[in-house]
Amino acid sequence: MSNHVIRKATLQDLEAIKQIADANREAIGFVLQPALAQNIQRGWVLVAEKDGVVIGFASYRHRRDEQTTLYEICVAEGYRGNGVGTALLEALIDESRQLGKCYLRLKCPASSLANAFYAGLAFERVGKEQGRCRELIQWRKELA
């Protein structure tokens, strides 16, 4: 396990987050910088940092109901497979529970290897839908 830190993103992290997102556009889609900045200001972005360098992020939204929605989660290429994505998700789950949320939802392209990642973390596959450009798998994790 690598010695990374999970923390809330700040606007100083915006450029590093955008670089990771852009390098993984095929997997996570196009992430708009103004939307990222707005989510950072709302406290809805976590980053994984190692030796002062941002190596991953999770962008989400705590809704007014019982749900937290995960929009993007991505770890920089050279850092995958070391528990960074799992640590980001666990931090998001902890935060969601503290806010009284009952479940976490996300959508993932049907062709993505990330579906195995969610299945391995006890997310339940709850559906499938046609997205704008590709088929999406809907995942849900109970937080109770």
Can you walk me through this structure?
The protein has helices at about 15-25, 25-30, 35-40, 85-100, 115-120, and strands at about 5-10, 45-50, 55-60, 65-75, 105-110, 125-130, 135-140. Helix content is about 30%, strand content about 35%. The model has no long low-confidence stretch (mean pLDDT about 95). It is built from five helices and seven strands, in the order βαααβββαβαββ. The two termini are about 25 Å apart. It has about 140 residues and is an alpha+beta fold. The radius of gyration is 14 Å and the shape is globular. The protein has a single domain, classed as Aminopeptidase (3-Layer(aba) Sandwich). β2 and β3 (about 55-60) form a beta hairpin.
Attribute tags:
144 residues; alpha+beta; Aminopeptidase
Derived from helix and strand composition plus strand pairing, the structural class reads alpha+beta
CATH topology: Aminopeptidase
Low-pLDDT runs of 5+ residues are none
- Beta strand count: 7
DSSP helix count?
5
State the name of the first-level CATH class.
Alpha Beta
User: Mind telling me which CATH architecture this is?
Assistant: 3-Layer(aba) Sandwich
Sketch the major β-sheet: 7 strands, mixed
Please indicate the count of domains. 1
Shape descriptor reads: globular
Distance between the termini: 27 Å
Order of helices and strands: EHHHEEEHEHEE
The main sheet orders its strands as 1-2-3-4-5-7-6
Report the β-strand fraction as a percent range.
Answer: 35-45%
